[in-house]
Amino acid sequence: MELKKEIIEKKDQLRGVIYEILSQEIHTVEDARSLEKLKALILKKANNILTSGEVHEAIITDFSLV
Length: 66
What we know:
By secondary structure, the chain is mainly alpha-helical. Helices cover 62% and strands 0% of the residues. It has one domain (2-49). The chain is built from three helices and no strands.
């Protein structure tokens, strides 16, 4: 329950990290393998922010390359 509370408290910070990653890395996503690397990077950066536990999965629900 502590982790859930921490995620809620740090929501803006976590969202900022995700936006930063996407703005820097989105051009490198070409296939499923690179999408997995992107998810791993998001997990790594998110877990660096969190202190009461770890996030083990990132789920991308919508993805479009233009």
